[in-house]
Specification:
Layout: E1 3-6, E2 15-20, E3 26-31, H1 57-62, E4 64-66, E5 72-74, E6 80-82, H2 83-87, H3 90-93, H4 108-117, H5 121-128, H6 146-158, H7 169-178, H8 190-204, H9 224-236, H10 242-247, E7 249-256, E8 263-266, E9 269-270, E10 273-275, E11 282-291, E12 299-306, H11 311-321, E13 328-336, E14 339-344, E15 359-366, E16 373-382, E17 390-401, H12 410-418, H13 426-430, H14 436-451, H15 454-465, E18 471-473, E19 494-501, H16 503-508, E20 533-535, H17 536-544, E21 547-548, E22 555-557, E23 562-564, E24 567-574, E25 578-583, E26 586-588, E27 593-595, E28 599-601, E29 607-608, E30 623-633, E31 640-646, E32 652-656, E33 659-663, E34 673-680
Parallel strand pairs: 10-25, 11-15, 16-19, 20-28
Antiparallel strand pairs: 1-2, 2-3, 4-5, 5-6, 7-8, 7-9, 7-24, 11-12, 13-14, 13-15, 16-17, 18-19, 21-24, 22-23, 25-34, 26-27, 29-30, 30-31, 30-34, 31-32, 32-33
Helix pairs in contact: 4-8, 6-7, 6-8
Bound molecules: zinc ion.
Zinc ion (ZN) is lined by residues 257, 259-260, 262, 557, 559-560, 564.
Length: 684
């Protein structure tokens, strides 16, 4: 009588009893605990007992049970039977490994990556087995085995029967102990976490206790196959773990010196591919073009600029759209809180610097060769609630300061700029009418207006209603009248003048044209951004494309004996069993961080890398199927992570912290996909 009980007491995830009876049959008792959520038509089943009959006996007697969710039975000859396939038991057996993880305060980045990893076939088998014997507690690069043990415990809990979500606190505290960057309650990057975790697990489980020192021989003119194998073997004598077994592959990396053409080839291991998202499409940008000729009203123009374009491309597109004349130029500026926040005038600047919610204007100015100063008119009006009694409104108007020596007429310049906003007077309105009465009443109105004109009753009116005319000052808080000539510091590029609009002027002009500016791009609710779609293969090609190293990443050329900006070409040489692919959605530059929402069209059932392998003599299969996705929703520094996990047949589940529910397989391809997990399809 052979009996093996994997029960809760032994802290193993499944109650499995194999009993060999007198007739040499194997009875399998599988206790599976159902999902309490029956909204999807699944029934809650506790302690469900499944007996495998004699037809299965042969299979079990020589096979290995693999508890990876779909309960596969692997025969010594490598053939695999799935219990669920044979007996249609999928509903029952599939319920294991569907536990959620509680959110400890923005820990969805961690939960999402963990769910992907704990559904990685060989990794599950490994940690459900006797992995403790491989703990390397003396590896100086490891964490005394503590991280691997904490992960192993967590994985076993996630694969234990029951439906209650697991609290990952014990794991998180170990993580934070060794990687304090993940402490606190801030949102982190699931990719950074995964990179740390894979690396940490590898070192904690490294079977190599003493890493020998190895000096790599120069590739010289030896065949790539030989050199690559040499590199791989020397990697293995220092690094040997479940992570290396399953997740590591090898690049061929070629560097060519631009000066002496010296070629250097290395074959470095990799644990994941970090693929850039090449921009293949255009970015729609709305910019408000503001004339300074005193005639045309501001007009928002939507133009398309290459995603990777520069400010020069934006100006070019705007110039065409607004019919810019040869004697005019466009000055692009960012408006923030009714003032000019900054001028964007380096044509080589990337348009990445402009975010979708920025408000950008382009002033149409006469071309001037002489260095000139710009006057920015910021509009203000009376505001009772404001401390200074005045508040800014609208967007600034800009004029080029000319004729400095003889003084600059601020009022004249301003009146010209706001001329397009002038409301039609009654006289203008009645122009079309022949009716005498209309003309009379219009005339009376204008007479009344005249009597209130500042020439006659300025002081009286100011006493009662405030000024009737525009007031100009250098500061919004003070009332420095600009009757004196303005002294412009010639070192300044622009001079800000506050123009105060009295109530009367707000009525005379249609100031609503100075209202709020449109944003660069406003995504419509419920509609997708004009779909930018790029295939995963295109991302891979962009990654493998030859390009010069960055200036901060120079290569020491042994032949020139100095650092050179070498050309680098990467190729895939050896592929791992589990291929983890990061989509580089987050870009970090000196000035800002950005997230790309590009929709990546990635294969689900057949990722074929045959054409991308530089190793022509390789016989290992290059086809992969997708089994998990870490998704990121929302913007940078926040947002939310979930995981999609394949769970046998065509069933996919979403793991959203503690919530786990089935999803439609057709819906797993979204622009939220961030980290993709592929497993190799064995050769037929
Ligand atoms: Zn060189």
């Amino acid at each position: 009588m052979l009996s093996r009980t994997l029960s809760k007491e032994h802290d193993l995830p499944i109650s499995l009893i194999l009993t060999k009876n007198d007739h040499a049959e194997i009875l399998l008792e599988l206790q599976v605990h159902g999902l309490s959520n029956s909204g999807n038509g699944m029934q809650r089943r506790e302690g469900n007992t499944i007996f495998a009959d004699s037809r299965m006996a042969g299979t079990f007697s020589s096979g290995i049970l693999r508890l990876n969710g779909s309960i596969d039975i692997i025969q010594p000859d490598g053939r695999t039977y799935s219990l669920s396939e044979s007996y249609g038991l999928h509903r029952e057996t599939g319920l294991l490994g569907l536990k959620g993880l509680q959110n400890l305060g923005n820990t969805c980045f961690m939960n999402s990556a963990i769910q992907c990893l704990v559904h990685t076939p060989k990794v599950v088998d490994y940690f459900l087995g006797d992995y403790r014997k491989e703990i390397n507690s003396t590896n100086p690069l490891g964490m005394q085995g503590e991280l691997a043990l904490a992960f192993g415990e967590l994985l076993r809990k996630l694969w234990s029967p029951g439906t209650n979500p697991i609290n990952p606190r014990a794991f998180k505290s170990k993580l934070v102990k060794f990687a304090p960057q993940f402490s606190g309650y801030n949102q982190h990057d699931s990719q950074e976490f995964l990179a740390f975790l894979l690396d940490g697990l590898h070192e904690d489980l490294n079977r190599v206790k003493q890493k020998p020192y190895i000096e790599m021989k120069d590739a010289a003119d030896r065949p790539d196959e030989e050199v690559a194998e040499e590199y791989w073997q020397s990697h293995l004598v220092r690094n040997d773990s479940i992570i290396v077994d399953v997740c590591q592959g090898q690049f061929r990396s070629k560097l060519v010196c631009p000066m002496c053409k010296k070629l250097s080839i290395t074959f470095d291991p990799f644990m994941y591919l970090t693929l850039p998202l090449p921009s293949t499409t255009m970015r729609s940008m709305t910019v408000t073009v503001i004339s300074t000729d005193g005639v045309a009203l501001p007009s928002p123009l939507a133009v398309s600029v290459p995603n990777c374009g520069s400010l020069k491309d934006l100006i070019q597109a705007l110039s065409v759209a607004c019919f810019l004349r040869d004697d005019e130029t466009l000055l692009v500026a960012e408006v923030y809180k009714n003032c000019i926040f900054q001028y964007l005038d380096d044509p080589s600047d990337s348009i990445d610097l402009i975010r979708d919610n920025d408000q950008i204007v382009a002033y149409r100015l006469p071309k001037g060769s002489e260095p000139s100063v710009l006057v920015e008119f910021v509009h203000t009006k009376a505001e009772r609630d404001n401390y200074f009694g005045r508040s800014e409104f609208g967007f600034p108007l800009v004029a080029r300061l000319t004729g400095l020596p003889c003084g600059y007429d601020v009022r004249q310049a301003f009146l010209k700029l706001i001329n397009p906003f002038l409301k039609p007077t009654e006289e203008d309105a009645s122009y079309d009418y022949d009716d005498a009465e209309h003309s009379v009443s219009a005339h009376e109105d204008s007479e009344m207006e005249d009597t209130q004109s500042p020439c006659d009753t300025e002081s009286d009116a100011e006493m009662v209603d405030g000024p009737n005319e525009f007031e100009f000052s250098l500061k919004n808080s003070s009332k420095i009248m600009m009757s004196e000539p303005v002294v412009v510091p010639t070192t300044e590029r622009s001079l800000r003048i506050y123009a105060f609009w009295p109530e009367k002027m707000l009525e005379k002009y249609d100031a609503c044209f100075l209202g709020s500016l449109p944003e660069i791009f406003k995504p419509q609710l419920f509609t997708r951004r004009p779909s930018e779609s790029v295939s995963l293969y295109k991302c891979l090609e962009a990654f493998l494309k030859e390009e010069p190293l960055g200036p901060e990443d120079m290569w020491y050329c042994p032949s020139c004996k100095r650092h050179q900006q070498a050309n680098k070409k990467l190729d895939l040489w050896r592929l791992p069993e589990i291929l983890v692919v990061y989509l580089k959605r987050f870009s970090y530059s000196q000035f800002l961080k950005n997230k790309l929402e590009t929709f990546v069209d990635f294969p689900i059932k057949d990722l074929d890398l045959t054409g991308y392998i530089a190793n022509r003599s390789s016989s290992s299969p290059c086809r992969y199927v997708l089994y998990a996705i870490s998704n990121h929703y929302g913007g940078l520094g926040g947002g939310h992570y979930t995981a999609f996990v394949h769970h046998g047949h065509n069933l996919w589940y979403e793991f959203d912290d503690e919530r786990v529910f089935p999803i439609n397989a057709e819906g797993i391809k979204t622009s939220a996909a961030y980290v993709l997990f592929y497993r190799r399809v064995p050769a037929a």
